[in-house]
C-alpha cells in the first residue's frame, strides 16, 4: 500500500469534503494513544466491511467539526509502546492481521497523518481480544 503525494493530497481533500465523520472515517487533532489507535483500527475496519468500503481512515491534524487542517504533532514513526515501534505493536495485537499504513503529509496549514486501514474480510477484527465497531461517530465494544 504505497501512495504518492498526489494521491494522498487528493484523498485528504475527498475525506475532508464529507459532511461529517462516518463509520469508516475518524478525524483527530493530537490524540495518539496507542491503545486508542488499536481500538479505532478494529472499529473502523469492521464498519468499513459492513458498509461495503474497501478501506477505512483515521486522520490526525483535522478539526472534527469543520474538517479544517489544523496540523498535528503526532509522528507515528517516533512513537513506541514499551520498546516496540507503534506499527509493530499494533500489528501484534490485531486479530486477524489486516493491512494498515501510516502516511505523513505536509500541507500549507500543518502536518497531517493519514492511517489507511484495510476492511475486515473473513471475520471481525479484534484488538487485544476485543471487537470494536463504530455506531455513528462513537466507538463501541
Helical residue percent band: 25-40%
Q: Which architecture would the CATH scheme give at its second level?
A: 2-Layer Sandwich
Largest beta sheet: what is the strand line-up? 1-2-7-6
Name the beta content range.
Answer: 25-35%
Mean pLDDT: 94
Q: State the secondary-structure class.
A: alpha+beta
How many separate helices? 3
Using the alpha-carbon principal axes, give the shape. globular
Say what oligomer this is. single chain
CATH fold naming:
Methyltransferase, Cobalt-precorrin-4 Transmethylase, Domain 2
Using the CA coordinates, give the radius of gyration. Answer: 14 Å
* pLDDT < 50 stretches: none
Topology:
Blueprint: H1 5-16, E1 25-28, H2 34-50, E2 55-60, E3 80-81, E4 84-85, H3 86-93, E5 94-95, E6 100-107, E7 110-118, E8 126-127, E9 130-131, E10 133-135, E11 138-140
Parallel strand pairs: 1-2
Antiparallel strand pairs: 2-7, 3-4, 5-8, 6-7, 8-9, 10-11
Write a structural description.
This protein is of the alpha+beta class and 141 residues long. It has one domain: Methyltransferase, Cobalt-precorrin-4 Transmethylase, Domain 2 (2-Layer Sandwich). The chain contains three helices and eleven strands. It has a four-stranded mixed beta sheet with strand order 1-2-7-6. The protein has a three-stranded antiparallel beta sheet with strand order 5-8-9. A hairpin with a 2-residue loop joins strand 8 and strand 9. It is globular. The model has no long low-confidence stretch (mean pLDDT 94).
